Amino acid sequence: MKMGSDIEKLRCCGNFLESSKPYFAMISLQFGYAGMNIITKVSLNHGMSHYVLVVYRHAFATAVIAPFAFFFERKAQPRINFKIFMQIFFLALLGSVSVPFN
What we know:
Blueprint: H1 2-19, H2 21-45, H3 50-73, H4 82-98
């Protein structure tokens, strides 16, 4: 009888953790934003250029996110042929042209 109640408690705890994942993700994201704001404030107060800070922030984000994209998404993407390459090219061209107008 005790073993059945232990399994029921584990199942209940597992359901709670599964349903709480979005909340934990948002709390983690808020901690990340707070850390980024603190690091930005400290580095700018010590005289770092705004441009250098943007480059470092993008380089760090790329280094953190790129392995996830490489390992988890590499089989889900289609092969790049000439048509897809031209679509990417024109979207990038139009995106860089429309930035000053926003």
